[in-house]
Structures are given as structure tokens and as C-alpha cells.
From TrEMBL:
<keyword id="KW-0472">Membrane</keyword>
<protein>
    <submittedName>
        <fullName>Cytochrome c</fullName>
    </submittedName>
</protein>
<dbReference type="InterPro" id="IPR036909">
    <property type="entry name" value="Cyt_c-like_dom_sf"/>
</dbReference>
<feature type="transmembrane region" description="Helical">
    <location>
        <begin position="21"/>
        <end position="42"/>
    </location>
</feature>
<dbReference type="Pfam" id="PF21419">
    <property type="entry name" value="RoxA-like_Cyt-c"/>
</dbReference>
<dbReference type="InterPro" id="IPR047758">
    <property type="entry name" value="CytoC_perox"/>
</dbReference>
<keyword id="KW-0812">Transmembrane</keyword>
<keyword id="KW-1133">Transmembrane helix</keyword>
<dbReference type="InterPro" id="IPR051395">
    <property type="entry name" value="Cytochrome_c_Peroxidase/MauG"/>
</dbReference>
Amino acid sequence: MNTDVMPQSRIKRVAKSKWSWLFTLVIIVVSLYVVMKVSSAITKLEYSLTPPKLPAYQQTSATKYLNDSGWGENSRWFYHASQGTATLPIPYDWLIALEAPKSNPWWIFFGSEDLFIASDLPKLGFIKQDESTYNPNALPIGLAQTPSIYFPGLNRKSNAVGFTCAACHTGQIIHDDVRYIVDGGPATTDLGLLTKSLGAALGQTALSSQFSILDGRFERFAKRVLGSNYNVLTRNQLKDDLTNTLKHLVTSVDVINVTEGFTRLDALNRIGNQVFDTAMDRPENYAPIDAPVNYPHIWTTSWFDWVQYDGSIMQPLVRNAGEALGVEAFVDTTGPDQQRFASSINYHNLVRMEKWLAGDQPQANQEINGLRAPKWPSDFPEIDTDAAKKGQELYQDLCQGCHLPAMNTTAFWQDDYWQKIQYVENGEIKETEDAYLTLNIIPLTHIGTDPAQAEVLPNRTVDTTGLNLNTEVCTPLPDEDGTVALRYVEMKDSATANYGLSLGAFVQRTNLQWFAQNFVPDSQISTMEGGRPNCLQVGLGYKARPLNGVWATAPFLHNGSIATIYDLLSTQSERPTFIELGNQEFDVVNLGIVQPAKINTLNSKYSNTYYKVTPDYADGRFVLDTREPGNHNTGHLFDDEKVTGKIGPKLNHDDKMAIIEYLKTL
């Protein structure tokens, strides 16, 4: 027997072991290569690929529209009427083709996700809609297609996706497994999370495009976008466009000092940043986000003498065009003076929307015939009429002095509250044809609520040097004997121009440019402007609007720092330090947003501490910490003690509930 010869079976075992080891080595090498390749691609993209955690979508068995608003089925047009904006930084066909992001970017090579518009947008508070003539791709309420917008990442024009008025001013509340759509109510969206979630979806799609074998996500995207035009050349061009778009987006990240969260937006600072920083390419004009406000409800607003929480703007066209610029309508700030301020704003739609909102002058018939406040639904718990009667008496005693008589009373419609607006132009006293509702603007020293938003317009300055802003705006000014009147003044460029007046002048120049380009006769301009002068004021206070429909407008105070009316009617020590925003479940007892048990635990554990102990989000919903500047829930207090912002005595439980029952009737 030859012992030097290895048995055949052993040879096979050694060979098998050798190939097994080599195969394992190859797998390790390939895995390391893939990991390094993916890591390199992630670094190259320079964009966050991990999306934020979003709350679960609150599914209901039915949806109802509170169409006592007077709009009925026609409101569908309003939901998707373009203002000429390109709010989302990608083309329209990209958005409808984009898949929602994976929770972890390393999983993008495995399986597909639902489309972003059907999955993530509803979780972010956008309201689902079916396909229709006005909305062929079933976009949520408040999104519209805007043609012919230039995209730097594409280096060409394309159809864009922009916010409509309805994006911020259509509310939703859920009760008893029914979703109620509130036309003109405050939106429940979170635009900060939208930016992060959309960015992650784009980034993951771009990452997928870097791998020729594991590129299923990008392939699905490309075939949806390109359709019958799909081929190697168009696919590669789309890949480059996607990468270039992400590189462009990396350079435009907001500085957030106070998180906005669900139902809130720092509209004034964002408009200023868009107009005086982005549109002018002047980063020195940028201001951090630090004064968020609850989206305001807009019924009755068309007939106010002043709008915005701080009562700063008068003319509806200036208000609406300024809002369109804030959500990224294009405007030219560098062309020759005769063409400067040309914009993509859709003025025809702005005027049509305002007409729908306003209706005819309501005083003669003592009824708003445009957008009306929603009525307490018949399938909600029945109103306690005895308690409501007591609440009416308390309202007249405690609330009417600031918020005016209730709109459903004869007193509200008297000439004491409805007056024509007088102003001085070219030394001549003029007045508006119609009378408007004169609102009380309460000084900060009296109301005591968070000052951040009221301080934006008076305190912020912008550099308008070389813009040729030169135009006239009107503002309250004293004459020689100290009498204050609305007077026109000339606005000129300055390195430290007042932001509020400069914004009014900027929008006025934009409006005038459109009138000139479209040959609008002088006789029609006043009608388009709503029959009011372009007056602005930059005081330090907040307006007290009528409380019709207030039950459907949570959260409360201008900055959304109070979840229910019951808490609003309480002393400072009784108000929760933390509230959760993002839940659409309606508290029919306390009138507001249902608060989870974990928020009650948070309040009992941390309310008396003086440092930040909570993250901004929990389970995808926003946790508002009222200890932070900009988030304070101070002021508008009912207390027996002498405190800043006191407007009435301390109310017992029965008195609070009586006022709540009465507010349900308005």
C-alpha cells in the first residue's frame, strides 16, 4: 500500500474546502467593493439620504366637506389653481414619478415603494384628492402645475409644482372616524419635514442611478418620467439632471432657529428670504427662521381693513402676490429697469381667487357671501344651548371689546365697525368706495403674547441697493399737529431699508410691471387691486379678528402654542408647557387638538425645567416646547393676579365650558 498517495476522497475534500474559501473571499471582496462604492456615491451626492420619521397616516372611513362655505363642488378649482409658483424644486413629472424614500438608504436596492405623492404627502398633512379635470394626477389639495419655469439643475425650463392658496389655507379635522375638510382653515402640513423627505427620495433615486445592475429604483423613475421617449440617451441625461439638481439643492439649506413643525410656518421671514436673498442673490439679506405662526384661517379676511397677524398689509393684490413670491414664483431683479420685476405670477388666478373669497360687499345684507366660516357639524355632539347662552354673556363681557360683537348679531354690522378707508395721495384726501371691517390691533404691552412675529417687520432691514425699488407706498404718518393719517411716501433704495415697507414696494413694482406688460388699462387696475391703496404698517401688536368659526382653527394664539380653547381660557400656570402638533384628531370637548398621554407625562415631568430636554419630534409628530423664544404661550390671560397680558379674571371650569359652547355657535 502506497501511503504517499492521497486518497481520492481527501483530495475532493481539500479541493472543496479550497474553492469554498476562495468563494467566501470573493464574496467578502465584492461586498467590501459594493460598500465602498455605495459609500463613495453617498459622499459624492452630498445630500442626506435618510428621511425623517413621519407619522402614520390617519385613515378614516369617510370624508366630508364643510361646504357651508358657499363654494360647494366648485372649491375643487380653488384647490389646484396655480399662482405661477415653483415651490417644489423639481419638475412636475418628476414629482408624480418619484417613489417614497426607504427608511434606510442601504435598502434602496431591494423592492419598491409607493409613489411619494400617495404615500408621504398625506403623512405630512396634505389632503388626498382623487383624479379630476383640474387634477389629472391626483395631487393633494394645494398643489398645482405651473408651466415654463427655469430649473438650474436642468439648465432649461419645465413644468413646475407650486403651492396654491389652498396649500396653507385648507384644514382637516378628524372625529368619529370621519375626516372633515375645512375650506379656508389652517393647514396641518409640515414643510420642514417635506423638504427633508423629498430630498431623501431624490437622493436615493440618484444613488440608485450610480449602479448599472442594482438601479431598479432609478429605472422605474426614468420609465415613468420619459415614457415612450425612454432610451439610453434620455436615460443618461435624466441621470445627470437628477445629480445636478441635488448639487444645486445642497446650496440652499435653511437656518432654523425655531422649528416650525406641523401647522406652522415662519411666513414673513421666508417671504423676505425668497425675495431679498434668493431672487436678488444677496445672502446678506437672509434671516434665520425664528418666528413661526399658525396658518391663519381666511374666511372673512377679504373685508378686514388690515390683514396678517400683525395687521401689516391692506391691499389684497399686494398680499396675494407677496405670498406667491414667498412660495417661489419667479421674479427678475437684475434686468434693465424697463423689464425688471417681470414675474411668473398668475395674476388672473390671484384676482379670481380673491373674488371667490370675498364675494360682494356684505354689510348691506349683513351676511358674508364669499367664503363663510364652517358651521358646527350636525353629527358632532349637540351644543348645550343653556351653557351657550351663559357663554354669550361672558363673551360680551370679556371678548367683545377686542374681537368685536359676534358676526351673527346686528351690532356687528353697524357703521361703528364698518368704515371706508381714508388716505392721502398727492396732497388729496381720498377714500375707498366700499366700507371695511375696522379691526382692533392690540399692542404687545397689553396682549403679552410672544413678540417674535410682531417684531419681524419693524426690526428687520434689507439691502436694496441697485434694485431700483423706487415707488410709492402708503403708511401711517403724523402731520404737523400730530394727527396720524395714511399717507403715500416714496420708497428709495437703501443698504438698511425697512423690510416691511421694502416688501410692499417690491410687490408693488412687480404688480405694476405685470400691468404694463399685459396692457391693463388704468380703469381696471383698481378693480384688480381690490379697490384699496397699497398701505403698510409696521407696528408692534397683533390684530383681534372676529371669532366666527374659531372652533375649527386649532392650535391657538398666533404662534400655535396652545392646543385647545380650554387651555387658552386658563391661567399661565394651567397651560401645558409642551403640546403635540400633527395629530388631526379633534377634541370636541375642549375645542382643539387631542393630546396624547405621553404629552401629559412630559408636562408633569419637565414643565418646570429651564433647559431643553425634548427632541422636536416624537413618533413623527412635532413636540412644541413653549419655553423657547418664538414658541411662548404667554399672554391673553384670564387670571385674578396682576400679570402681563391679563384680559380678564380667572375663569372656573363651568365658565370656560360655557364660552366654549357659545363659540361653537359662531
